[in-house]
Design goal:
about 80 residues, 4-stranded antiparallel beta sheet, two-stranded antiparallel ribbon, about 35% strand, extended
C-alpha cells in the first residue's frame, strides 16, 4: 500500500482531484521547449485544449485553459491517515 487510502474515491471527507474535459474540443498543441526550471533549465511542454476545469481538494486550479489563484496541492510524504 502506498499510504494513500482514497484513490478513486469521490466522497465527503476525501481528497479529490478532478479534471472536467470537453471531449468534443479535446486537441493537443504542438510540443515546445520551455525554459522555466531553476537556473534556466529546459523541458518539453505540450499543452492541450478542451480541459474545462481542474479541481484539486475542492478548489478550481485551472478554468478554461487558464490557471486560477488557488494552489491547494502539496507534497505527500509517508503514510497518510484514513479519512474520517
Amino acid at each position: 500500500m502506498n499510504g494513500l487510502h482514497d484513490p478513486g474515491v469521490l466522497a465527503s471527507g476525501y481528497r479529490a482531484d478532478i479534471n472536467v474535459i470537453d471531449y468534443n474540443s479535446l486537441r493537443l498543441r504542438m510540443p515546445e521547449v520551455v525554459y522555466d526550471l531553476p537556473s534556466g533549465g529546459r523541458r518539453w511542454m505540450q499543452r492541450a485544449e478542451g480541459y474545462v476545469a481542474t479541481i484539486v481538494a475542492g478548489q478550481p486550479t485551472w478554468r478554461d485553459g487558464a490557471p486560477t489563484e488557488a494552489l491547494p496541492g502539496g507534497l505527500v510524504r509517508g503514510p497518510q491517515p484514513t479519512p474520517a
